[in-house]
Write a structure and sequence with these properties.
The structure holds 2 protein chains of 2 kinds. By secondary structure, chain A is mostly helical. Chain A has helices at about 1-10, 30-55, 60-80, 85-105, 140-155, 160-190. Chain A is globular, with a radius of gyration of 19 Å. Chain B contains 8 helices and 32 strands. Classes of the chains: A mainly alpha, B mainly beta. The interface between A and B is large, with 53 and 45 residues.
């Protein structure tokens, strides 16, 4: 998987990838057009949010910057009719990763997430004043989530039949992993103590 | 380019989990359900006897001032029959002792924070700041959120008591932990009397009754369950009146005056009597209304006080002793309700003899109220406060307390000039939540709500206004005082996350006291003459 991703990061070298739907045709399919729009929209959504995330927690701001670049790159590669298997798999699994981080951040505080220290009070060693808590769910982040899920499904439809089945099975296990994570997060009340 | 049914289902598991799990957490599913005390173990409504908080006794009095000492401490209380619940009480009492003062005599309250260094289950340090809600105190005695008193420390609060008779309440205001602290019991009533109000034939003494209404949720071991899973607020499944679940109160066949304070963390109420009887509102947050208003229901949210008179001679007319009528809550929208949150308390009539004096409500109560006599044309400035959620935070005009802190406590949303009158318009453009907006220092007059006259029960001096869904409310107020004061949402979950800003009343003559530092010198000075 990682070697495939490396190849995709430099699309020009992906010559050995299996050609799939759309790759050889002169015009892009409607599904690819929609996928391009969704990738760009998801990129913009993350671009808008970089600053506030950076101010809150630099790691999250950096993560948003990487997502922005990756979504634009995905849109660009799809635009130039690179719908090789590797590109599609990269598009799917990179979006699944973003979705996974999203789900995790809404169910549990993330490792390293800043605690909320009270204003003007010193932080006692070894103890946080307000433990870091899961982030809230808003309309804007739900919109981004739906874009990413839509992208995953669209790109999935473009895969060859064998890969469709294999990838959707992996997606199902990912969904089950989310549920297991949610049950664990309930037991910790979403915070590290 | 399509998916077969099987692949679609498998993908659906993934997408469904990704959407549903975060949404479910926000809806509070699970977190509370795991350890919540089952409804079957809660007392049946109207089985626990009604009680009132003790009256605070000054430890010292001199020619001008009453001195009180209150110790905030963690104690176990039997709130639910058969269970022990750790609460934080002023002098160990929940609600705290009622302080009764007379206009013209000052009060000094030494608030000692004897709470544990760390809350045993919630893991935070319970620092405090005490706000006397309804008092035009100096900035340094107003319970400024960031002016905290940590466990092991105390602070002396000076209260001027020059205002008109009213029902005030004191409660915690410590930055970021107000919700937890107040939820654990750090709140109490404070009654101020004046000659005008004392001369009226209104119910007094045992017929003048404090009702502090709140809600709570309990873990199955009896401890308080507190959850911030729902960022809109924290809602309990047990309604508490003076710290007792759905109590029943024995009443005589005469008028009673109830000082009704809603002090829930987030819940708002719509009160009415179960048999549809009407009652009279005689006073609002800032004291007597110009005239009593007869109503059969009213809505009320966190921080609001209404003094209502219920005539049990009428309510129980023709009914035998032992008959009951309950105070109901037909909840306003955007509250989280449970099976018995529609009930508050019950009144059970007796045939006991009673004192027949002070058993009426005169048609005119107070004509001399400065706030109610203000007129709109006197306003020298108009300002708008938008209450909104932006970027995942609760804000007032886009500002949070964090912004105030980062400004070195110098940012001010408004700088009204001392002695002037202004019109403030409060706007809530959302249909998804309501906000109890509280402006410190001032009493205000509600001019209009969505362009229409204020509700009948609001036609008195106020300091908290129900800013309902899609409502725009116009207020008129005069700024007597000087310095920085907070203005914030009284849904304490919103307040802690960080829906507070401030204004500075400026005087051309002198600077205002600093809310964070001015009290130091004065409380030291007090120390030197404070012979215990
Ligand atoms: Cu609010």
């Amino acid at each position: 998987m990682s070697s495939e991703l490396t190849a995709v990061a430099f699309p020009g070298r992906a010559g050995n990838a299996t050609a799939v739907a759309g790759d050889s045709s002169a015009t892009r399919s409607l599904a690819v057009d929609v996928a391009i729009l969704m990738a760009v929209a998801a990129g913009i959504a993350h671009l808008i949010s970089i600053r506030t995330h950076w101010n809150w927690w630099q790691a999250s701001g950096a993560f948003f910057a990487v997502i922005t670049v990756a979504q634009f790159a995905l849109g660009g590669v799809l635009f130039f009719k690179r719908t090789s298997l590797n590109v599609l798999l990269f598009g799917i699994w990179s979006n699944v990763l973003v979705v996974a981080v999203y789900v995790a951040s809404r169910l549990h505080a993330l490792p390293g997430q800043p605690v909320t220290t009270a204003h003007h009070a010193p932080r006692a060693p070894g103890r946080s004043w307000l433990p870091a808590t899961p982030e809230g769910v808003g309309a804007f982040d739900m919109f981004s989530l739906l874009l990413e899920l839509g992208l995953v499904v669209l790109l999935l439809t473009l895969l060859p039949a064998k890969w469709k089945s294999r990838t959707s099975t992996h997606l199902m296990f990912t969904g089950i992993a989310f549920v297991v994570f949610a049950i664990w997060a309930l037991s910790t009340n979403g915070t590290f103590r | 380019m399509s998916l077969n049914r099987r692949d679609l289902l498998k993908t659906g598991v993934f997408a469904g989990a990704a959407v549903a799990l975060p949404a479910a957490r926000v809806a509070g599913v699970g977190a509370a359900a795991v350890t919540r005390m089952p409804t079957s173990k809660l007392p049946a409504p109207f089985t626990v006897p009604f009680t009132q908080a003790p009256v605070a006794v000054p430890y010292r009095q001199d020619a001008t001032t009453d001195y009180y000492k209150l110790s905030m401490q963690a104690v176990n209380a039997e709130i639910l029959p058969g269970f022990q619940t750790m609460v934080f009480g002023y002098n160990g009492s929940v609600p705290g002792p009622t302080i009764k003062v007379t206009q013209g005599r000052q009060a000094v309250v030494r608030h000692q924070n004897n709470l544990p260094a760390v809350h045993p289950t919630l893991g935070y340090e319970p620092w405090t700041s005490v706000h006397l809600h309804g008092s035009a105190s100096l900035p340094q005695y107003d319970g400024y959120a960031s002016d905290i008193t940590r466990p092991g420390e105390y602070k002396d609060y000076h209260y001027p008591n020059f205002q008109k008779a009213r029902t005030l309440w004191y409660h915690d205001h410590g930055v970021h932990h107000t919700a937890e602290n107040a939820y654990h019991g750090l709140l109490g009533q404070y009654h101020m009397y004046d000659p005008e109000e004392r001369a009226l034939p209104l119910p007094k003494g045992e017929y003048d009754v404090a009702l502090t209404v709140g809600d709570a949720m309990f873990n199955s071991d009896g401890s308080l369950l507190f959850s911030l899973a729902n960022q809109s607020g924290h809602w309990g499944d047990v309604i508490l009146v003076n710290g007792k679940p759905w109590p029943v109160m024995k009443v005589k066949r005469r008028k009673y005056r109830f000082r009704l304070l809603t002090a829930a963390i987030s819940r708002s109420f719509k009160f009415s009597l179960s048999n549809g009887s009407s009652y009279q509102v005689i006073a609002t947050d800032g004291g007597l209304m110009p005239a009593p208003m007869t109503i059969s229901s009213h809505r009320q949210l966190s921080g609001e006080r209404y003094e209502i008179v219920i005539d049990f001679a009428q309510v129980f007319k023709g009914q035998a002793a032992g008959s009951r009528v309950s105070l109901k809550n037909t909840s306003p929208t955007n509250n989280v309700n449970y099976i018995n949150t529609d009930k508050v308390m019950a009144f059970e009539v007796t045939d006991e003899v009673f004192d027949t004096t002070n058993n009426s409500v005169p048609p005119v109560l107070s004509t001399k109220n400065d706030v109610m006599n203000l007129v709109e044309t006197q306003a020298v400035a108009s300002r708008t406060l938008r209450l909104e959620r932006s970027g995942g935070a609760w804000t007032v005009n886009g500002t949070t307390w964090d912004h105030i802190v980062k400004s070195g406590f110098k940012f001010a949303e408004a700088r009204p000039v001392e002695g002037t009158i202004e019109k403030w318009t409060i706007v809530n453009k959302s249909g998804g939540w309501f906000h109890p907006l509280h402006i410190h220092l001032v009493d205000f007059k509600v001019l209009r709500r969505n362009g229409k006259p204020a509700f009948a029960h609001e036609m008195g001096p106020k300091d908290v206004v129900y800013t309902g869904e899609n409502e725009t409310i116009e207020l008129l107020m005069k700024f007597d005082g000087c310095g920085y004061y907070m203005v914030h949402c009284h849904n304490l979950v919103h307040e802690d996350h960080d829906m507070m800003t401030q204004f500075e009343v400026v005087s051309p003559m002198h600077p205002g006291d600093d809310p964070m530092t001015a009290a130091m010198a004065k409380s030291m000075a007090l120390e030197t003459f404070d012979v215990l």
